[in-house]
């Protein structure tokens, strides 16, 4: 199985291309396609991970279903047999890795929730004792579990690449108090339900990010959800606070890139076959652990 690096659905209008996924206009709807591209240290690497986009799509579908009583979502169908006729030429390329989704009016904030102290949250805390303006107890160590999960919204920087942490008050300015409160409450409720489930299955959901939109039925959960690309997954049996945790999915990739002393400037290098194979296995393992099912491609 070769990796799918880039879609080129030439009869469709490209709506947006992200680092690792592509979005097309299809009539009233959008087609969300997860490629096998992988990023590390803020760059998309020259090699893809075969099947990664399918794992992420199937994991998002699992969570959309798991969460459907908490919040409606943008999924119309992921069944290629039910896709509009104009997608028929691309059926094989799309199968398993794409979702036809409802177009929503996206809220211009990333809804981040953290149950553990890591990444920019840890940096903020070390510098200020707070994360996004939320004061935390003194004496916390890197990767410690927080007394309770915190909502730490972010906004996309102008380059569209980096997220900038904002305070809840900033969020209120951007989306209004009513929506800000509803998005915060939904984010915390989703995290609580999903992280409790994941932890029982051996995966710590350290933090994650949701994107919501407004549609006819009200606020809906959009984008991909609770995947290794939108979250920090840590293997529970290796959890050791007091320093950074190994990443569930990308650790072999990061270790390899450090070992070759790549300067983290473009062009990003290719990955050797054993790093690709071991990373691919990690994505499949995450899916198996979380869903209890094996993904066969
Ligand atoms: C939407 N993105 C981010 C995702 C990219 C960029 N249901 C929706 N309705 C309207 N807009 C979006 C969605 C969703 N999901 C999501 N940008 C717009 C994004 C994937 C690939 F290039």
CA-to-CA gap between the ends?
9 Å
Low-confidence stretches: none
Output the radius of gyration.
19 Å
Mean pLDDT across every amino acid position: 97
Strand content: 25-35%
Compounds present?
Answer: ligand PZK
Order of helices and strands: EEEEEHEHEEEHEEEEEHHEEEHH
What is the tally of beta strands?
A: 17
Q: Which sheet architecture does the biggest sheet show?
A: 6 strands, antiparallel
Number of helices: 7
How would you characterize this protein structure?
This protein is of the alpha+beta class. The chain has 7 helices and 17 strands. The strands form 5 sheets. Strands 8, 9, 12, 15, 16 and 17 form a 6-stranded antiparallel sheet that branches. Bound molecules: ligand PZK.
Briefly summarize what is shown.
The protein has helices at 52-66, 91-94, 119-128, 168-175, 177-200, 251-259, 273-291, and strands at 13-17, 21-26, 29-34, 39-40, 43-44, 75-77, 98-101, 105-106, 111-116, 130-131, 134-135, 145-151, 154-156, 163-165, 203-215, 218-222, 231-235.
Which features characterize this protein?
alpha+beta, 297 residues, six-stranded antiparallel sheet, 7 helices, five-stranded antiparallel sheet, 17 strands, binds ligand PZK
Task: Give me the secondary-structure topology.
Layout: E1 13-17, E2 21-26, E3 29-34, E4 39-40, E5 43-44, H1 52-66, E6 75-77, H2 91-94, E7 98-101, E8 105-106, E9 111-116, H3 119-128, E10 130-131, E11 134-135, E12 145-151, E13 154-156, E14 163-165, H4 168-175, H5 177-200, E15 203-215, E16 218-222, E17 231-235, H6 251-259, H7 273-291
Antiparallel strand pairs: 1-2, 2-3, 3-7, 4-5, 6-7, 8-15, 9-12, 9-15, 10-11, 13-14, 15-16, 15-17
Helix pairs in contact: 1-7, 4-5, 6-7
This protein binds ligand PZK.
């Amino acid at each position: 199985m070769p990796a799918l690096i880039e879609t080129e659905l030439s009869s469709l209008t490209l709506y947006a291309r992200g680092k690792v996924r592509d979005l097309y206009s299809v009539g009233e709807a959008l087609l969300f396609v997860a490629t096998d591209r992988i990023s590390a240290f803020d760059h998309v690497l020259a090699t893809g991970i075969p099947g990664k986009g399918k794992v992420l799509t199937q994991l998002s579908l699992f969570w959309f279903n798991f969460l459907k009583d908490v919040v409606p979502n943008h999924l119309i169908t992921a069944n290629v047999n039910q896709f509009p006729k104009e997608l028929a030429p691309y059926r094989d390329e799309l199968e398993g890795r794409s979702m036809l989704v409802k177009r929503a009016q996206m809220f211009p904030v990333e809804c981040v929730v953290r149950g553990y102290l890591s990444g920019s949250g840890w940096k903020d805390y070390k510098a200020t004792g707070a994360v996004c303006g939320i004061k935390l107890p003194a004496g916390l160590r890197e990767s410690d579990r927080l007394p309770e999960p915190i909502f730490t919204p972010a906004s996309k920087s102008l380059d569209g690449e980096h997220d900038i942490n904002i305070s809840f008050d900033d969020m209120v300015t951007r989306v209004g108090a009513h929506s800000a409160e509803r998005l915060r409450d939904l984010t915390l409720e989703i995290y609580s339900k999903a992280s409790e489930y994941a932890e029982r299955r051996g995966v710590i959901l350290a933090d994650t990010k949701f994107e919501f939109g407004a549609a006819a039925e009200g606020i809906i959960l959009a984008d991909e959800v609770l995947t290794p690309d939108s979250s920090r997954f840590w293997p529970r049996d290796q959890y050791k606070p007091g320093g950074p945790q190994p990443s569930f999915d990308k650790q072999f990739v990061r270790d390899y890139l450090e070992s070759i002393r790549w300067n983290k400037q473009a062009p990003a290098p290719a990955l050797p076959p054993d790093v690709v194979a071991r990373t691919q296995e990690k994505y499949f393992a995450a899916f198996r652990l979380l869903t209890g099912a094996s993904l066969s491609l």
